[in-house]
Amino acid sequence: MSLGITWVTGWIRLTAAVIAEHRVELITLDREIGDGDHGENLDRGFSAVIHKLDDLPADALPGDALKLVATTLISTVGGASGPLVGTAYLKAAQAVGKAEQLDGAAIVALLTAARDGVVLRGKAEVGDKTMIDAWTPAVDAAAAALADGQSETAILEAAAAAAEKGAESTEPLVARKGRASYLGERAIGHRDPGSQSSALILRAAADAAAGSGAAGDAAADAAAGSPGAA
Description:
Layout: H1 5-21, H2 23-33, H3 38-53, H4 62-76, H5 81-96, H6 104-122, H7 132-147, H8 152-169, H9 193-212, H10 214-224
């Protein structure tokens, strides 16, 4: 079974809750190697997203919800995180297009497009001590899970687990992009806040899928009469 609008909106709501829960942690991480506003900015952005989410029409598609996140983050979040994370959601929305249901291939395409959007904006690559260090392992793990014939929920779980390891892997790195790059070797031993927030976002995607289940998502779509109904 594929995942529809119920999963996407559940992912968005869970992301907002998780970012709020980890706001101080993200602020602390960013204060150590940046300007300290990452957690505050993301929390403000996703709070704004939640306020707008209920305004989605009853026939909204997954891509519509993803585009709502993108435009809201880009317009409300300052610093680098707004354009970076917003572009990730915008490219994800473009990747899924008008699809009512997202199968494994569509989910991998969504994640890949999101990662590529971050690369497009930030010009970073793996090893630069940025959110790409979480996103690229996530995309690779999702693609491998798809190739193994795993379910949509399993694909998202693989992506989340890889992102968490990727975020951890930034701790011994010297930053080559962003404000942290000015610190040189003093950034060693500190986790990149963008990679950590990316891991939280991808964990929320997996947890939202696992919480509802693909079958439960389709059933909820059908009960609501939404376009995500199978």
